[in-house]
């Protein structure tokens, strides 16, 4: 993702869901950075440090006032993602760039503020419906790595539930830890040897430009 951020060029960059503003340090020199976050999730869950708290579906910026928008792992948390994408198109200058990432096969997180998942086709449709043209849309993780990730996350989640419920499942912790190590190594090796399958991925990265 760092490489993608460095291709955004100079100008005014808007980071939606900025959290601790880590994107700012990855941008090319000379950029004007504005970070926004949603008060409820940003302040209570992430200790966000935005320039302003705002709703992505009602951005506090003028029309055609930014050169690029970065919105990473945020769309799934928006109750009105279509409206947010239209707002992004509104504030982008003609030819302005959108860099977006979303999860696909990934557990519910930040509950109860996890509302949806998009397939690559649904994501492209929504971006283009907002008036932007997709130039790149790719899986963020390969199929076998995604399968390994899901199994490891499931084991970790069940381990956490065992602790919370004071279940005898805690006795299986050593075996679960060993299984996670084996799964990670196996998934990495298999990912190098097997062809990719884009129907199974942990998420997507999209690049688009305002028409």
pLDDT averaged residue by residue: 94
Compute the gyration radius: what is it? 19 Å
Number of strands: 7
How helical, in percent, are the residues?
A: 25-40%
Structural class given helices, strands, pairing?
Answer: alpha/beta
Unreliable parts = none
Anisotropy-based shape? globular
| Main sheet: strand order | 3-2-1-4-5-7-6
Major sheet details: 7 strands, mixed
DSSP strand content: 15-25%
Features:
7 strands; 7-stranded mixed beta sheet; 211 residues; 36% helix; alpha/beta; globular
Written overview of the protein:
By secondary structure, the chain is an alpha/beta fold. It is built from six helices and seven strands, in the order αββαββαβαβααβ. The protein has helices at residues 2-6, 39-45, 81-91, 120-129, 143-165, 173-193; strands spanning 12-16, 32-37, 52-53, 66-72, 92-103, 132-139, 203-210. Strands 3-2-1-4-5-7-6 form a seven-stranded mixed beta sheet. The protein is globular, with a radius of gyration of 19 Å. The model has no long low-confidence stretch (mean pLDDT 94).
